[in-house]
């Protein structure tokens, strides 16, 4: 585990990735259930996980923020990823996108709401931007509930990689 803690909540810790974490990321996205609402809607290969890991290191270096490794505070168990990235299709507008993925065996424990709310506060406290977006698949009602619970508002429909989605925003 990286020694640098990015953010702590009552039950969770966000930390930077280690260079050898690609297999952990692949396992997070290893089933159709955990990828059905992600771009591509297919389980991730190790190569894809390695590419994403490299991109997260690059984002951290360039923007000072990325998607981080999420661990439970009580036992250090890996349960997912969460953080911000620049929305690639919107890079000219400079919009940051909140994203999170939780291991399937940890669903239903309120981790997504806990980390998303803490990340929103952290994002604004650090002055990354005056607003950010998040998007969900139209059928991902659980994620839509999370975004609304933390105070995000529906902005518009969005097409990402040819797939329809719903875009939410938060401003401060």
TrEMBL record:
SUPFAM superfamilies: Acyl-CoA N-acyltransferases (Nat) (SSF55729). Keywords: Transferase. It holds the Pfam family Acetyltransf_3. PROSITE patterns: GNAT. The keyword Protein biosynthesis does not apply. Gene3D superfamilies: 3.40.630.30. GO terms for molecular function: acyltransferase activity, transferring groups other than amino-acyl groups. This is RimJ/RimL family protein N-acetyltransferase. It comes from Rhizobium paranaense. The lineage of its organism: Bacteria, Pseudomonadati, Pseudomonadota, Alphaproteobacteria, Hyphomicrobiales.
């Amino acid at each position: 585990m990286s020694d640098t803690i990015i953010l702590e909540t009552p039950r969770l810790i966000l930390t930077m990735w280690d260079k050898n974490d690609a297999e952990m990321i692949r396992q997070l996205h290893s089933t159709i259930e955990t990828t059905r609402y992600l771009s591509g809607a297919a389980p991730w290969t190790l190569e894809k996980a390695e590419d994403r890991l490299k991109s997260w290191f690059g984002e951290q270096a360039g923007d000072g923020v990325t998607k981080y490794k999420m661990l439970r505070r009580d036992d250090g168990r890996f349960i997912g990823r969460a953080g911000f990235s620049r929305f690639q299709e919107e890079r000219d507008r400079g919009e940051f996108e909140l994203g999170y993925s939780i291991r399937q065996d940890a669903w239903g424990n309120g981790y997504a709401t806990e980390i998303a709310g803490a990340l929103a506060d952290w994002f604004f406290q650090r002055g990354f931007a005056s607003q950010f977006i998040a998007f969900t698949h139209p059928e991902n009602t659980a994620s839509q509930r999370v975004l609304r619970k933390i105070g995000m508002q529906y902005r518009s429909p969005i097409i990402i990689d040819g797939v329809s989605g719903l875009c939410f925003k938060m401003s401060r």
